[in-house]
Specification:
Helix content is 0%, strand content 46%. The chain contains no helices and eleven strands. The structure holds zinc ion.
C-alpha cells in the first residue's frame, strides 16, 4: 500500500473531498486508512463496565478506502501520485511525481 501511517493525505472523492489530514491508522489488508478529522461518524456510546468510557454521542473517524485519497507531498504540498524508485541496494523509495523528491 502506498499510504502509510503519519502520511498527510487529501481526500479526492466522496463527501470529504478536498479535506486534508494525517493518517492515524493504515489498514493494508483492507486497503483502508483512518484519516484525522475525515469521515466522521457519530456513535452512540453506552456505558460499559469501564469507568473511563466516554458516554453519549461521540464522533469518530471511520476508515476510508485508499483509492479515495491521494498522498500530499511534504515537499511541494500537492496531492500527488507516487512513483517507486529502487535504490542500488534494492530498497524502494517513494517519489513524488510532481516535484521528484523522495517521500519518507
Ligand atoms: Zn512533491
Amino acid at each position: 500500500m502506498k499510504i502509510r501511517k503519519d502520511d498527510t493525505v487529501e481526500v479526492i472523492s466522496g463527501d470529504d473531498k478536498g479535506a486534508r489530514g494525517k493518517v492515524n491508522t493504515a489498514l493494508p489488508k483492507e486497503e483502508r486508512v483512518v484519516v484525522a478529522g475525515v469521515n466522521l461518524v457519530k456513535k452512540h456510546q453506552r456505558r460499559t463496565s469501564s469507568v473511563r468510557t466516554q458516554t453519549g454521542i461521540i464522533e469518530r473517524e471511520a476508515p476510508i478506502s485508499v483509492s479515495n485519497v491521494a498522498l500530499v507531498c511534504p515537499h511541494c504540498s500537492k496531492a500527488t501520485r507516487v512513483a517507486y524508485q529502487v535504490a542500488p541496494d534494492g530498497s524502494k523509495a517513494r517519489v513524488c511525481r510532481k516535484c521528484g523528491e523522495t517521500i519518507e
